[in-house]
Amino acid sequence: MSVVTPSTPAPEEAHPSPATPGLKTLLREIIETILLTVFIYAAVNFATSRFRVESISMEPNLHAGQYVLVEKISYRLGNPHRGDVVVFHHPKSERDLIKRVIGLPGETISVANGVVSVNGTPLSESYVTAGPAYQGTWTLGPDQFFVLGDNRNNSSDSHAWGPLDRKYLIGKTVFVYWPPTNWGLLPQYTYAGTSPH
Fold it and tell me: Is the pTM higher than 0.85?
C-alpha cells in the first residue's frame, strides 16, 4: 500500500516590498535637501549679513527703514577703503551702526569751517548736503578708522566717540534691497588727492 504524504508548499522567498526602495529614496532626498539648505544658509551668513537702517545719520543716501546687504568677505581678506559704507559694532554699546569710512590707519583727520581734511587735504564730498558744524583733529592708530555719518550734524560717529578699532567692523554695505523702490548698488566714490589704501 502506497502512502501519499501531503506535500508542504515551499516557503515563498522573501521579497522586499515594492514601496521600500521608493521610501528610502524619498528619505535620502529629503535629508540631502535639508543638509544642502543648512549648508547654503551657513555659507550665506558667513559671507553676508542683513541690516536695517535705524536712523537718519546717513541721509540723504540711506534712510531709516531701509534694509541693506552687508558683504563680510572682503574685510576678512583686506582693509576698508575711504568712502566705504560700513556696518560695525558700536565700541561703547551693544548697537550696530552704519557710517562712511573717512580716515584710514595712520592718518590725521581734521574738521574745521565745515570741511573735512585728511592729512591737510580737504575732501570733496558730493554725497554730503551740509558740512559739519563741529571741529577737531584726530590722529589714527595703526589699526583704526575714522567713520562719519553722511548727515554730519545728526550722527553719533567718530567725531563724538573717537576712532573705530578694526575689530569692531562687520562688513561693507553693498546693496539696498528694501523697499523695492530703492533697490540698487550703493555708489562708490573716489577722492582726488588722497590715497584710497
Answer: no
